[in-house]
Every structure is written in structure tokens, then in C-alpha cells.
Description:
Blueprint: H1 3-16, H2 32-36, E1 50-53, H3 60-71, E2 76-79, H4 85-89, E3 102-105, H5 113-116, E4 121-126, H6 129-143, H7 147-154, H8 165-174, H9 179-182, H10 184-188, E5 199-202, H11 206-217, H12 235-238, H13 240-249, H14 251-257
Parallel strand pairs: 1-3, 1-4, 2-3, 4-5
Helix pairs in contact: 6-8
Amino acid sequence: MSISSIINKALRLRRLERPTEENVVNLEEPTKNQQLTFGSTSRNHPNIKLISHHIPKTAGSSFGKALTQAYGRECIFGVYKDTGASLLTNGQDISLPKDVCVLHGHFASHVNHKTMFPNAKRICWIRDPAERLWSLTKHILRNRQPLTHYQSLLKYAKKEDELSVEKAFTLVLLKPEFEVIRNDYQRYFHHIFPQDFDFVGSMHRYEDGLSELENLINLPLESLRENTAPDSESLVMKYPETYLEAKSLLKAEFNLVQKFC
């Protein structure tokens, strides 16, 4: 793909990341009603109609809000660190509230999910791997979260204010302690490849993807922008040479998802 094509994708992505004044929908904690209606664990959840894998920095917050408006908050269960993400990633079952029909969160695909959720469509969004990691690096510096990754970056700086985004990104690309986040696509698609999903949308064509997904779930989805950042300039536009270097280093990630970008 040419640099000009990549820049055009980055411009579309920047429009997606424009600030919003809409209230944030928090899917990382169950609602009060959901907390009261948890059922026992079961190896079969026929009520789950949609499994949405929220790969970090792929418009998951915006899409979570669109899902909330389409299905209603009580029908969506956010699967994150404290609500069963590691269990589902490892193919183990979790307890779910009785009215839930959509799972959305930071958990990887697993072959066991086909049996656990026999009626569910499997979906996710992706973005250019280098741009995703660039965005994640800025998120770590800006929010100092995840704390373990932020502290790892600080080890390489004499002073906190000496750690530029560019230096941090190079560290994330090269240092072994960042291998997990550097290879997120390989982790999320370890058991089930993206071509075996019912839908893989591109952040670079977000509105088109929403239209395609509407046909799959037979519900309207609004294009809502959430969790946006003031420093949303893309890597390829700001540092094109660094982008090409990152693309080379992230070859395995690109091989997995490039056809969907």
C-alpha cells in the first residue's frame, strides 16, 4: 500500500477521533440491575446473540455506545479485567445476568466460545497495527495507564518529562516488556482467525462498517464518537519514516489484519 493511501486512511481515522461532548457509557462495570440478576455459571448461553471483541484502541468505546443505543444498556455485559475477561480469553465460563444478549470487552477469541455461545455472531473492529500501537502509546503516557506499562517506560527516562511520545513509541516497538501489547492482534486471534469472524470492521471505514453490521444484526447503529483524545494526529502523517519502520517491525500483526484495514 502506498504512503498516499495510508495518509488518506489516517485522515478518515482522524475524523472518527474528533472530540465529542456526549456522555461516556461505562461498560466496564455491571449496572445495579445486572448485579442483582447474575445466574450460575453454565457451559451454554443460548441467549447471547453477539460477541464483540474490543481490541484496545480500535474504537471500542464509540462502538460500545452504539451497541448500547441499539440494544439497551441492560442487554449488554462489559467483559473487562474485573468482570471475567481473563476467564473468557482462556475459554472458561463466567456468570452472566439473565437479560444479557451482547458481550463486549477486552477478551480474546477462543474455540470454546462456539459451544458456550451457540447462537452468537462474533465481531470486532481493527485498525492499522502501527497506528493502533501509536495511539496506545499516547494513551499510556497521557493517562499513566496501564500503570505497569507506564512504569516500564519510565525506567528508560532519567526524568519523567524527558519521555517524549516518539521515544516511548520506539521503546514499545523494541523492548520485550511490551511484547503483549505490541502483539495484541496475535493474542486476540490466537484461536480463531479474523476471516472466521462474522464481521471485521475497519476504523478507517467506520461508517461503512456500521452499515454492513446493521444488516448482520438487523438493528440501526449510530455513528457516535467516544473516548477521543486531543493528540489524535496519526503516526503516518506526523512521522512517515517512523511509520514505515514500525510497519516492518510489526510484520506479523500486519499479516493478520491488513486485508481488513
